[in-house]
Amino acid sequence: MDWIWAGVQSIRNVFSIDSGYRLTDDQVINHFPNHVELTRKDLMKDENGRFIHLDFIPLTFMLPADYNLFVEEFRKNPNTTWIMKPCGKARGIGIFLVNKLSQLRKWSQKTNFTPPTSKDTYVISKYIDNPLLIGGKKFDLRLYVLVTSFRPLKCYMYRLGFARFCTVKYNASVNELDNMFVHLTNVSIQKQGEDYNAVHGGKWTVQNMRLFLEGTRGKEVTDKLFDEINWQTVHSLKAVSGNISNDRHCFECYGYDYIVDDNLKPWLIEVNASPSLTSTTSSDRIMKYRLMNDLINIVIPLVRCLSDVRWNKIPQKEHLGYFDLLFDEELAQQDALNMDKKLGPGGMVRGRKDGSRPSPATWK
User: Fold this and answer.
1) What does the pLDDT read at residue 218?
2) Residue 75 is inside which H or E element, if any?
3) Cβ-proximal residues to 92 (8 Å cutoff; 6+ apart), any chain
4) pLDDT tens track for 226-273
5) How far is CA 221 from CA 47, 160, 353, in A?
6) What is the pTM of this model?
């Protein structure tokens, strides 16, 4: 079986009608044709053009299209800090914070950004100004999620994600709004700072962070935090599953970025279609090697007779490596049917008093 690793730009040519290229049954490729349905925030709108309200995504507007709506919201809470990002860039390029409308106007004059007529698109979101701090520093979580099918949804969470730390202690003062070493966790930003540590790269493994939280906050609330992250991930994928072109040749490894606030509430900040596979430390290189190895073992069946895209995409447990099943819609539907058949009088499962049983269709 052949597999193709394409960039987000070249994938358009692969699936273009004009290219004349067609994938054969023994080929798989690492993007769905319209994977941007999930990764571009300017597509998170309903049929009326309004942003979908999700309580795990910060309040967000598109500029210049939503400039007047943003100004209205800004004036309701004039002391709020906002973070602005260009839609078409990555690695922290072009990001800045504002807490006054005059700052936005001044910036627009410098960049020829003239609301509401400019063609350049930016995302402006309410800044999470109460992040959970460890050692006084802000961090975010980078988690890898593998999707092998959107209909039915089949997705996996990688256990070897990591936390990315800022190199300078967090300070919510307005005097520090321009200090990206305080506010942005992107490695491409932080490694330019004087305090960057090239040995550990300012990263913690998710396992170490979870152990720290269990010791400082307790196991119950830590488990609840990661259950919430898994729930948000599944629902974000379900939200776009009806719009994704579910080509059987495709799989996707998304990079999910979460920020945890001081109430241990996770916020989904961004989903990346092509998370960086370059390494900054030796442990980083080992982790990403394992990620690719485990990913290949799932998307390419190891049994020769199944080596084409027509297999059922349910890998053996021993082939998952460090991936854990996050959600399998097909198995969940089968579980529901089996549960209905086993329900006795009063809606109880025969042979069990609590009416519950572990389900292999989710991470729980």
Assistant:
1) 95
2) helix 67-76
3) 180, 184, 186, 188, 189
4) 999 999 999 999 988 888 888 888 899 999 999 999 999 999 998 988
5) 37, 21, 27
6) 0.86
User: Residue 259: left if φ>0, alpha if ψ -120 to 50, beta else—which one?
Assistant: beta
Q: Are 361 and 327 in contact (CB under 8 A)?
A: yes
Instruction: Give the tokens for residue 270.
Output: 């961004």
**Residue range 325-342: mean pLDDT, rounded:** 80
Helix, coil or strand: residue 45 = strand
Cis preceding-peptide flag for 116 (omega within 30 of 0)? yes
Largest CA distance in the chain: 71
Instruction: Give the tens place of pLDDT for each residue, 105-142.
Output: 877 776 666 555 445 688 889 999 899 999 999 999 99
Q: Residue 155 forms beta bridges with which residues?
A: 147, 327
Q: How far apart are CA 256 and CA 268, in angstroms?
A: 8
pLDDT digits 0-9 by tens, 287-331: 999 999 999 989 886 544 445 555 556 777 878 899 999 999 988
**If you write DSSP's letter for every residue of 285-332 in order, what string do you get?**
HHHHHHHHHHHHHHHS-SSGGG-STTS-----GGG-TTEEEEEEHHHH
DSSP codes, 112-177: T--TTT-S--EEEEE---SB-EETTEEEEEEEEEEEEEETTEEEEEETT-EEEE-SS-----GGGT
- The set of residues, in sequence order, having a beta carbon less than 8 Å from that of 60 and lying 6+ positions away, is 41, 44, 51, 123, 124, 125, 126
Query: At 76, is the secondary structure helix, strand, or coil?
Result: helix
Amino acid letter for position 359: S
Write out the two tokens for 76: 């309701």
What is the Cα–Cα distance from 158 to 18, expressed in whole angstroms? 37
> What is d(CA 298, CA 156) in angstroms, rounded to the nearest whole number?
10
Structure tokens at 80: 């709020």
Residue 221: both structure tokens together: 């609330």
C-alpha distances in Å from residue 358, one per residue of 155, 190, 354, 361: 18, 43, 12, 9
Q: How many CA atoms lie within 13 A of 101 on its CB side?
A: 13
Tokens of residue 341, six digits: 């058949």
The pair of structure tokens assigned to 70 is 């943003």
What is residue 261's three-state secondary structure? Answer: strand
